């Protein structure tokens, strides 16, 4: 390489480095009128209980680890066609521009007093798994309206259309102008955090629907923004045909988990019709209690009897301020009809058993039951065992030996005989009843008293052998008597001689 070539090469490299250095430094000194491009990134999260994720100044925030990102939310970035921010006077126009979305979902931008401005919108951008929706490169020195074009299906409130400039004023800690502003709008989702549990013991089913009293955020249409209030909280729960409603109750808990006094119908209403249970907070005093206990929860408990084969699968619809969402029972349990106990008797001398009436039983259960305690007293003392409610009718064997059929949850049960028919020996140990389908049963056999030696006192001996023994015994007595008579006569004869 010649000296001239080497110098040219060095000069070229120096020029590139200089250009690169200038390119890196440009954002620090860029200002409206400098041209170029920028971006706007929307980060979508659920409304946190605290109300904020951080300062809304256009900078990128470090979001708390427990913040819930919302994926699949759509945003559009629309430039206001006749606003040019390279012109100083157009910055003054921004304070008079408002943006709304009409009933048809279309963006409407107006400049006071009544001028409708045209916009050009790019394609919808969906948030990713982290809740981020970055715009494509946007020309700088323009004003944009960002609006939520596809909100979550169960969002109570959506993001208000927001006017954002590129560049956006800095926050005082870095560059004077931010060419890549970040927005952090939040959605309040109906029923967010709600849970539903379904439990069954024997044939008694209980559902607990817990609805958090979430922060609804700020109403940005007011000046200054004011907290949004509850206008409705409703829970609807349709029980299946295999369940018979027996009752329900409601508890309101404050943020510390302490119960708040509430009354019906003043604060809420609770009704049931055709298995549809409906809880509604709609009165002014009831809604005021919700607003005063943000961070707490409402708990609806529903009790029902299993009356046919089915499961505890169930869905509750939660409606907050007119927007509904569903919450379902996790891991529902099955229950089956026709469970019963069969009692039979083994009578003395009989070759086979026969049905036995009048035997009463008590059932116990727990998850994972494989063996039964030694007797009913031990079962009653075992705190891990639950006594099964077998219904209003006595759980006693009838003439056919069977107890009434009942509905029981899938699982194992310890059966103890607590009423023993007269004349029979009862069973003191527990018997295992396994329910895995309809018609489950277990058979218990009682032995008749007297069937085993020692059960009863012995009876007088009868029959031919008995007569022989009596004859022999009688003859012996007669011979003994004759011997005594002869001996006495011999004594008398000796005395006379």
From TrEMBL:
Gene3D superfamilies: 2.60.40.740, Immunoglobulins. The chain crosses the membrane at residues 468-487. It comes from the Bacteria. The keyword Heme does not apply. Residues 1-30 form the signal peptide. InterPro entries: Fim_isopep_form_D2_dom, FM1-like, GramPos_pilinD1_N, Ig-like_fold, LPXTG_anchor, SpaA_PFL_dom_1. One of its GO terms (biological process) is carbohydrate metabolic process. Residues 458-492 form the Gram-positive cocci surface proteins LPxTG domain. This is LPXTG-motif cell wall-anchored protein/fimbrial isopeptide formation D2 family protein. Pfam families: Gram_pos_anchor, GramPos_pilinD1, SpaA. It comes from Salana multivorans. Residues 353-443 form the SpaA-like prealbumin fold domain.
